[in-house]
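Hi C.,

You asked whether I'd gotten around to modeling the 93-residue construct. I have! Everything is below, sequence then structure, no commentary in between.
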Amino acid sequence: MGQATKELFATVSTKGQMVIPAAIRESLGIEPGTRVAIRQEGDAVVLRPETLAAKLRIIEKMHGCTAGGPSGTDMLLEDRRLERQRELREEGW
């Protein structure tokens, strides 16, 4: 998954806010206004930025995962062909 690095620390304010250390923000491309997904995994909090670079990494991981199977376009065309055959049968053709 992620690359192993030394732990960095941040302090949570009375409002529940904290600052992500600059080295991590820079490494992940987190800039002001970047949306960050937050989830709990056991006793850990995981933050995942929704940056273009992060989305491209996800796409890259998925690249080729459906290789060898029918394409989405082929599946849609086949579905439409079968639907049209049903319509013609219902119309008496």
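If it helps when you're writing up: Residues 69 and 75 are 10 Å apart (CA to CA).

Thanks,
B.
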